[in-house]
Amino acid sequence: MESCMTNNQFVPGTLYLVDLEGTLRAKQASGRQNDVVLIPAPSDDPDDPLNWSAKRKALSTASISMCVRHLLRNWSTSVTNDLD
Length: 84
What we know:
Layout: H1 54-83
């Protein structure tokens, strides 16, 4: 198995934790990287963001971005009006 650390596909500032002997009591990835320890460990709750589908994550991010944009636009308009 090829390590993520050798081909620089890991996220900077993170640690690639592998449990080769299976001695850690932690949730581990599935598939061909089943020796990778998942931190934070996802729960079984479908509302846990770690368990969301990519589509749900994208929709959530877009919704929050639109709300923040709207709030900032209204705030900047009110500040501009107060300065006049």
